[in-house]
UniProtKB/TrEMBL annotation:
Domain of life: Bacteria
Protein name: GMP reductase
Known function: Involved in the purine-salvage pathway. Catalyzes the NADPH-dependent conversion of GMP to IMP.
Keyword RNA-binding included in the entry's annotation: no
Domain CBS: residue ranges: 153-209
Active-site annotation: C302
Species this chain originates from: Nocardioides imazamoxiresistens
SUPFAM superfamilies to which the protein is assigned, alphabetical: CBS-domain pair, Inosine monophosphate dehydrogenase (IMPDH)
Pathway(s) of this molecule: Purine metabolism; IMP biosynthesis via salvage pathway
Class of enzymatic activity (EC top level): oxidoreductase
Cofactors demanded by this protein: a monovalent cation
Amino acid sequence: MRFLHDRQPQHDLTYDDVFMVPQHSTVSSRFDVDLSTDDGTGATLPLVVANMTAVAGRRMAETVARRGGITVLPQDIPVEVVREVVAHVKSRHLVFDTAIELAPDATVGDALALIPKRAHRAAVVVEDGRPVGVVAEDDCGGVDLFTQVREVMSRTLVTVPADTDPRTAFDLLDRARVRLAPAVDADGRLLGVLTRKGALRATLYAPAVDADGRLRVAAAIGVNGDVAGKAAALLDAGVDTLVVDTAHGDQDRMLDALKAVRALDPQVPVAAGNIVSAEGTRELVAAGADIVKVGVGPGAMCTTRMMTGVGRPQFSAVLECAAAARAEGARVWADGGVRHPRDVALALAAGASSVMVGSWFAGTHESPGDLQRDADGRAYKVSFGMASARAVAHRTSTESSYDRARKGLYEEGISSSRMFVDPQRPGVEDLIDQVSAGVRSSCTYAGARSLVELHENAVVGVQSAAGFHEGRPLPAGW
Ligand SMILES: NC(=O)C1=CN([C@@H]2O[C@H](COP(=O)(O)OP(=O)(O)OC[C@H]3O[C@@H](n4cnc5c(N)ncnc54)[C@H](OP(=O)(O)O)[C@@H]3O)[C@@H](O)[C@H]2O)C=CC1
Ligand SMILES: Nc1nc2c(ncn2[C@@H]2O[C@H](COP(=O)(O)O)[C@@H](O)[C@H]2O)c(=O)[nH]1
Ligand SMILES: [K+]
């Protein structure tokens, strides 16, 4: 990446401060762009879901890995639960979404409680392991909550045989004019659900899979306690990337933690952070990090900059740290502050191998929280920061009352925020579609067929607030 007219900026910049200038391109289609990362994680899409309790759970991990990204399970989850989640994610089908299964005598109330947990917004009614009907939200209107689902389900079933290729499945669903169909094995047993969009996506994305062809998932540990023991347990559980995470990554505890993890000879990439300087990057790489997590203060749930005055505008932090990491053969993830596809493209242009997203993905069906509605009926999920009083209280629940009270003083995150679900893009895959479309397009504007070429070719200029404002759409006119 170079700056327009080779003018070096006089101050640090964030995503809103910069823009990319189109370059001559020989890439004739956005579908010709390869978005695979080169950081050893096996991701075919440069997105990492942040290790935040309100964002990253099993459902998110499965869905994002199916489209090529990676989810980092938070450090606050007990190891035995991580083990169970990893096994679950690795048992998921690479094409079909996991169905909500209901017995015919389950109630409409059961269906309505479970359907919001799936972006495809339906449940499959199953008898002896075989689908006998589908219940969508619309089928549940105007009946008592204790009505059995067998009375409201649609019985005209289109099923997709297991070995159908996604393009054929798309045509099958299109011709049958159904939005979704249960997928079945040769004995007619339920394997999952395929929507028309899911079939289309299966032709566009490649799942992030391990050497055995199973979906990949990462997990985080902190820098306190028995770091080696916890890391060994996570590796044994089968995590595909280990993330060592703390607010101030450039500290002795982190270097000790990294050395302890390295001593285990993990056969998976190790990410560590957070830092925002070239020196910090070099230290973490020297201590054993393959990937360095960059970002202090840009996160949506993060109050660090207001509390401490510490941090660094994220675009400059990523640019400097990515150069330092690449010089040592390592990579960086740009962590935090991503609110638009453009932010992802700019972080990749600056040299990040992948981009971490937290809060933006909290407001989707796949995040762990329950869907709630405000007084105007707008759907939302609750999000909170990992250094918020809420998260700290949870993390320290086994410590003495005195220690908990002491730690409770150092709050650097928001404890409760409403992340509204975009009615046009309620699922994380809808947001992934948007990011992937935006970044593929950025690459062709930069004449790049891959993310490496995007970083090499990108020409970035600095803009005023008016320049940024000019780029915003005006859906309501002016
Ligand atoms: N990217 C960002 O900007 C930030 C991210 N976070 C996220 O919050 C989560 C919790 O992280 P964290 O607060 O580090 O908690 P941890 O439980 O990981 O503890 C951090 C350790 O570092 C010590 N420490 C020393 N200086 C600091 C400092 N300035 N800030 C925090 N800890 C310090 C703490 O000791 P003692 O408590 O005795 O001081 C403690 O032992 C992580 O997921 C992290 O990524 C949190 C803040 C900023
Ligand atoms: N200072 C704090 N930073 C936090 C907290 N919880 C998470 N984070 C950081 O934010 C990113 C995600 O950023 P987002 O803009 O996509 O939400 C995450 O990976 C952490 O680095 C917190 O409580 N305080
Ligand atoms: K912030």
